[in-house]
Design brief:
Layout lengths: L18 H13 L1 E3 L7 E12 L15 H13 L5 H5 L7 H11 L5 H10 L1 H7 L6 H7 L3 E7 L2 E6 L6 H11 L7 E3 L15 E9 L2 E12 L4 H19 L2 E15 L3 H8 L8 E4 L14 E4 L14
Helix pairs in contact: 2-7, 2-9, 5-6
């Protein structure tokens, strides 16, 4: 029986920010409701959760109780900002976060038990194969930078006819502009939940809504997730939310403030028991900080080389299966 560590008493001199994450994990694992989920794996779940993270002085919510591959998370986030919906650019960077969904589709459609490694290599090497099997539908980035817009284009016997514009709404560009010129707005929002296109997506957006708030010269951000895989997804989501704030703050001439994270269906998969027990037996250490070493002309011009992390003292990685 694994002894799960308990967070220090709140009267301790300085409670490490990561205890919020570990306390949430423990709350779910010990008291969450067991539910049948879409994947068939099963979860323990709570509904409604909140955490807050200070981003001043370069601080970042990068978990130390297991290694989190922040460069992989950053490459994924930069891919979102391109509006790309095919996994080929990710696979070319050896980022396999999204590979399981098109691979599962490929296997079901063709009956070919191709390995993940073979599938990813084929996606990179064969553009025609990638176009056929690597597309995810209009997921995150497509909605962020090219939300579809339709104009009335006449009528027929069945009613109004609408025509889709060649270029949709770039929500991210609009937020940068509004932060610069109307910082007091309550409409600094990037939304991924496009109801009309959910059925075309490989996976509907989990981290669905970002809202930003300017207080003095500080930029705060709130990330709402309708569904949250606490063990595997949330460490990346926290990094991505903080990264978004840091990039927007730099582009708008503001200082990073606070990341507020909120979860709807916040869960742990039942087959993640070894990961949960191992991680809850560890204690946080250190404080990761990130520097952005260049100020690009646009938020869409950042490169992986622009981000440097220091002070990161992670413990060993903990692997667990992804529920597709």
């Amino acid at each position: 029986m694994v002894t799960l560590s308990r967070s220090p008493d709140s009267s301790a001199a300085q409670r490490h920010w990561e205890w919020q994450y570990l306390d949430l994990m423990r709350r779910i694992w010990e008291g969450g409701d067991e539910r049948v989920d879409r994947t068939g794996v099963g979860t323990r779940s709570v509904f409604g959760a909140e955490m807050r993270f200070d981003l001043s002085d370069g601080k970042m919510p990068l978990l130390s109780t297991k290694r989190v591959y922040w460069k992989t998370a950053t490459r994924e986030f930069l891919w979102f900002l391109t509006g790309e919906t095919n996994i080929r650019p990710l696979c070319a960077q050896k980022v396999e976060i999204w590979t399981d969904w098109p691979l599962d589709h490929f296997r079901k459609e063709t009956g070919d038990p191709m390995s993940r490694e073979e599938f990813s290599a084929r996606i990179v090497e064969d553009a025609e194969f990638a176009a056929r099997w690597g597309n995810l539908g209009p997921v995150y980035g497509k909605q962020w930078v090219d939300w579809p817009v339709y104009d009335l284009d006449g009528a027929d016997d069945f009613g109004p006819v609408y025509r889709k514009r060649d270029k949709g709404v770039n929500q991210v560009a609009q937020v940068v502009d509004s932060l610069r010129h109307n910082p007091g707005s309550r409409r600094h929002i990037v939304e991924g939940w496009n109801v009309a296109e959910l059925d075309s997506m490989a996976l509907p957006p989990c981290h669905k809504t970002y809202q930003f708030h300017v207080a003095g010269n500080r930029l705060n951000g709130l990330l709402y997730q309708r569904s949250c895989d606490v063990a595997l997804g949330l460490p990346f989501n926290l990094w991505g939310g903080a990264l978004f704030i840091r990039m927007l703050a730099q582009q708008a001439g503001l200082e990073p403030g606070e990341l507020v994270w909120m979860g709807g269906d916040t869960h742990l998969y039942l087959n993640h028991a070894p990961l949960v027990e191992e991680q809850l037996g560890r204690e946080p250490s250190g404080q990761a900080r990130m520097d952005i070493v260049r100020t690009p002309e646009s938020i869409f011009d950042y490169r992986i080389e622009d981000f440097e992390v220091s002070g990161y003292e992670p413990q060993a990685p903990i692997k667990a299966p992804v529920a597709v």
